[in-house]
Design a protein that fits this description.
Rossmann fold
Length: 488
Amino acid sequence: MVNEIGSVYLVGAGCGSADLITLRGLELLRRCQAVVYDDLIDNALLDAVPPQAERVYMGKRSGRHSAHQEEICGELIRQARMGRLVVRLKGGDPYVFGRGGEEFQSLAQAGIPCEEVPGISSAIAIPAAAGIPVTHRRLSRGIHIITGHTADTGDALPPDFDHLAKLQGTLIFLMGLRQLPLIARRLMEAGKAPGTPAAVVSGGNATHPATVRGTLADIWEKTSEAGVMTPAVIVVGETAGLDFSSTIPRPLRGVRVGLTGTSAIVDKLSAPLRQYGAQVLCLQHHQLVELPEAMDGWRPAGGWLVFTSSNGVCTFFRQLDRLQLDRRRLSAVRFAVIGGATGKTLREYGYLADLCPKVYTSASLGQALLQMAAPEESLYLFRSAQATEELPDILRAAGRTVEDLRIYDVTAQPEERSAPVDYLVFASAGGVRAYWETFGEPETAVRCVCIGDVTAKALKAQSSRSFLTAPEISAEGIIQTILEDRPL
């Protein structure tokens, strides 16, 4: 008999970019039927969640505080009792001031099978990202992770605080930014030298990353002047005076880039952007929906197969398999692609493009087809349902036979969490329209970037503000555009 009760995994998402999650945590995300998540996780992790899985956000929505712990536990129990594999996705490590223990207890009392999957704690990862090792030979042979706020005492500091201050090694305070002046004063009163190195670091997926270094005597003043905002990690001890920041060049370090598009597009853009040091946020998740009826009855009989996106290539070959069409029948056709990225995807299926325009635009592709395709050859366009009429209009105006096959559509699902970004990347005209319908015009400080000419035209129709257009439809084109826009 199949057990009707599901199971819950408390998964630590790590601290910072999506690729810091464990392989086990990522595997569970890919298999889950529901994910319950809150703030301080990389949105890109949600792209690993199956599209049919339910997503339940429990963080700080606009105008309300985070969900109460009882509400979260109740949601986990409800999801599991529906027979689902549930991932409770938490920033850092679930058991390091993440209330994972409380959630495990609630689930156990309700008879729900549960397991914890560790993650990299912010107590270690956030200082490390700022170049601060929490231990170092001869300087610190131990670390002490302490809550910076508790409800059990009058001053909201741990009851054994004076004893903690006398310990050797590095002191790490979590959730203590508002208590920083009191923490510094109490440590000095307990015997810590005023000149003891100290640092305050807000990093990972924090809205306003910042690193402030100083001593116990001046760290609050420096932090206040810098306008550091929560969440932040406080480091006290000799290692806080070290700076082992990465020496690998990352010209986009500190730059926040918001992405819109399908999982495939986001995946292609995320990795290289992070390699350059950017913090990547997926602001709008686009799901590709295949339209199989568009190819029902279609049979290759010579002519040109024209692709204007990698999505079109992948959908085309999936539909060929669905129709059980022998690929040897493609020997009589020729292939045209709009750009290098689309051509690369075509190569992955074992075919080389016969035509790729020097300029990656619909207009250039149309003109190139008119030059290379014989007048009697049929032109088959495999495109999105939201594609513009520019390309078929150019071809039909020249008297060519065009069959415009809309083989997929893209639906937009906005992320419930919003965060400020420096650049907002649009990968399709449909993505532009969907963003405006959901969020409206971005803030003035946000610089919009379009991946191509068609997308740029859609953005121009929505906004009179200036924006950037990548010279080529690729991740490299987007990155180069942002790099060239950055101040020297």
